[in-house]
Predict the 3D structure of the following.
Amino acid sequence: MRIAQVAPLTEAVPPKFYGGTERVVAYLTDALVELGHEVTLFASGDSATKATLAPIWPRALRLDPSVHDFFAPIFMELETVARRAREFDVIHAHLDYFGYPLLRRLGVPSVTTLHGRLDLPELQPLYGLYGDIPVVSISDSQRAPLPQANYVATIHHGLPKGLLEKRGGEGGYLAFLGRISPEKAPDAAIRIAARSGLALKLAAKVDRVDQGYFGSRIEPLLSQSHVEFVGEIGEHQKSDFLGEAAALLFPIAWPEPFGLVMIEAMACGTPVIAFENGSVPEVLEHGVTGFIVRNEDEAVEAVAEIRSLDRNRIRAEFERRFTARQMANNYVALYRRLAEAQGTKIPP
Amino acid sequence: MRIAQVAPLTEAVPPKFYGGTERVVAYLTDALVELGHEVTLFASGDSATKATLAPIWPRALRLDPSVHDFFAPIFMELETVARRAREFDVIHAHLDYFGYPLLRRLGVPSVTTLHGRLDLPELQPLYGLYGDIPVVSISDSQRAPLPQANYVATIHHGLPKGLLEKRGGEGGYLAFLGRISPEKAPDAAIRIAARSGLALKLAAKVDRVDQGYFGSRIEPLLSQSHVEFVGEIGEHQKSDFLGEAAALLFPIAWPEPFGLVMIEAMACGTPVIAFENGSVPEVLEHGVTGFIVRNEDEAVEAVAEIRSLDRNRIRAEFERRFTARQMANNYVALYRRLAEAQGTKIPP
């Protein structure tokens, strides 16, 4: 198939640092190419891809100090995609609702993956107008606040099979990996580790909006002897950081739409102790790939039982359910379904 | 003609407080109705208009604390306009480039008035893609940084003839009216008034982004005995505030795209002493409606000569060039030209 992937421009595809959406787009795009499809990736010019790159802006917007208005490049992207629409069998956008008014009028099958939370009040009236636009949820639970959207599939994220390596958890510490923000609850992780008598390593970035929270609520906790704050880590450090941990703590305080770090841990053979929220029950299997808990007491109990889980089995579950190839196969099946519904003829 | 006016949603049309774009849209819309046209105004639901209101969001976004994402309502507006496009002979948008990818694909003549500055670097590549989109500049000088856009007219703003009243300048003070921001240079106004030995009244709002500038650079100057800071004023106070002033000081430090306050002063019969920048030489006639100066020395000299100008003549120049009816007539001529170019048949 001739597939257009339309990525955000905030980060490169894949991102140089943090950036969940653009990472998933990168994994999907490369996996589609590996499956033999002809893929064009609309993205920032510093992206690296196995597909044909259609660069919209020279650099990722977040790293380009010359850009004052982040929306102008997005509107260049929309126009560029629209002009080339007929070159594709399907257009797959990752621009949230920004593509909707245009995509529906191009006469080419299109679909949008929703990467974020759907509980913003503005989305209720918005989807009153866009209730027919085909969208993909990244977990079933993500749909809850916005049932009226036209979900054509839930497709879980996946990682390239060889991206991260299985390790044995020899470090014996608990790991926290993500943004420092109230909804990720690093303070809960610090308390759980303290009560478990284990060290906690936090690998985390602090966004500008979260610096107040970090300074007032988290920084004072970092001086405790069991806590090590290692800052932001890159992809190449994740196998070590996650794989040598006894478990990943994921004590989220919000309805996480997917939670990529859970499958990163699984790829390293590392069990996940996660609060029952959002996508967690869809991603984790309680007692197999980790423990799903409801509070800090249960999390402490789970830490005590963590050695009962089989790290080989956890890695095997990752390979069974969460590789980029599986994600790509799921999307290809969806693309075909959308093209057939629209009566478009596509090559096998 | 059947005309769609597509307004921003940040402020009501007209705005409850400050807001240049939405005010001009309000004046234009009402004047088009008065000329006998069938006008539909897409705007926030708290707008007040002689046209048929198509409310997109219940309240102006800036005054609606329930709104987190200002763009979702705009994308509701785009879709709503697109669905109704065939009801109109022309669609006139005031959404900057947000309408471009969609408007060009609706098969209905459309035009966008550019209300802001055009020197942002992102606009250069943006207009590489959108160089054929018909746009209206609000002054000729506004075009300078972006000559490659498809300007189909310059149409100056206008005010309803009866909105403001001519007064005699009996207050004898100098007036400053606008935002407190470095480009409006209220500090220059304070210095010019001091050197002229006249009182200065500043009627100004302070945006959140300008609060640092206000606190550090302007607030310390307000304790001088010749300065009176009166805060933000409403429409009904302008005839008094401007009309009782000996002159309006407009010592701008940026290429003002239009400068509505200049024609507000003229409507009150009040001369304007303005720095030669942006639209100023197009709006003012030196020695007739005010003085165009290059620095503070020349501004002080101009204040000394201000009584040589005829306030009746200034009001007459306003009525000759800057009423909302003239603005509306100019737009109607443009709409007809666009419709003819597209081969659309429209009623006379």
